[in-house]
Amino acid sequence: MNRHDGHSWRNRGFRRSIAALAGLTAGAFLVGFVWLPSVHGDFTAGGLWDSICRAAGAPASWSSGADGIRAGPPSTDVILERSMADLRSSTGSVGRGATLALNCTMCHGVQGASISNAPNLAGQYPEVVIKQLLDYKSGQRRSAIMQALTANLSDRDIRDLAAYYAYLPKARTAPTTYDESLPALVRVGAPLRNIAPCISCHGGVDQKLGAPWIEGMPREYLVEQLQAFRAGTRRNDAEAQMRNMARPMTDAEIEEVAAFYARKAAVAEGQ
């Protein structure tokens, strides 16, 4: 083999290596950014760019989405402060709050334990009660009944109601722990779909300021709220936190999470 032949062989080998590397890269790209995203049951093909964004965990659009999550007025004007949470250890307003709560008993129970499709309020974190009442009053959370009831409440009324309900023992519930069998979304969430575990915010293991205690809530209420967050018809979650969590959830996952938390009431009653 002369020098020219050796040089040509090396050039052919180099070109083949480049071609093989390009083919491997293209194959990995198609598998990782097209095929794998498309096999998920909740995936709706919207073009190659949507597939790439889904696989990379990035939004396909940084502006208004199809469900209008970033469109419209601010979702809430309430700024959560630690001083709101301090009401749970204060009994100064409990008596006055109990009197005001007489207007709430038809839906939320005599002692905050609902027998209807309304949420339990007994033992609820005070900042949660404050925020939701203020959102109802401002119209940023919609309910004909609740908006009418909150229309004339003063800031003191709202804080006294929150102090009263925080003072009551939690309604027939047991805290969620890692020692029990938990649905996947409750325990670990779904990282590939940007769904955080429920247990990281909603009590039991940890509680994020403003996140409600949901153990023992009526199943129908939880299903209704998750569906509303998913559809964007409930919008009073700051920075669309719950809407972002609920939007990728399937109907079956919503039912599973709601049934798990609703069963917590029965578990506590049987202890």
TrEMBL record:
Keywords: Electron transport, Heme, Iron, Metal-binding, Transport. It comes from the Bacteria. Residues 92-169, 184-265 form the Cytochrome c domain. InterPro entries: Cyt_c-like_dom, Cyt_c-like_dom_sf, Cytochrome_c_Oxidase_Subunit. Gene3D superfamilies: Cytochrome c-like domain. This is C-type cytochrome. It comes from Pigmentiphaga soli.
